[in-house]
Design goal:
Layout: H1 29-44, H2 50-59, H3 72-92, H4 100-109, H5 122-147
Amino acid sequence: MRSSRVDALIDDSLPEQDSSTAEKPVLTTADGYYLGWMEYQAEHGVEPTAEELSVHLAQHGIYGRGGKPVSPANLRRYFLPSRVYNVWAEHRTAGENPAAGSVAQHCAAQGITGQYNKPITTAYITERADEFERRWQALVHHHAGAQH
């Protein structure tokens, strides 16, 4: 069982941005899916299936194209990066620039594997490090805005 890394609900609104302040990271669609995925786990104690996440997102007003629930097939592609992001974020709390090798080892220890049960590689983590950092910053700002 994985614990929540960021205490933010998908219903939390984004903080209002003032044009006089530096540009704050904005939550992406993938970030919204991630928040829904984490919220589902916090509520139910287990990771959702893609079908369960689709329903959960729709219940919180997050829809896909045409106003329909997000396709489970679409959501499935976000699960692995979300799992790896959680491990990366755990390392990120200890300091900036988590070591890809350490994150990969931690993923292996938690049984997080890629397609065909292959281990998560340092290359996989390195390729996503900028996106992980962007998400980290966006969620920090999102969480701070939700506190006010």
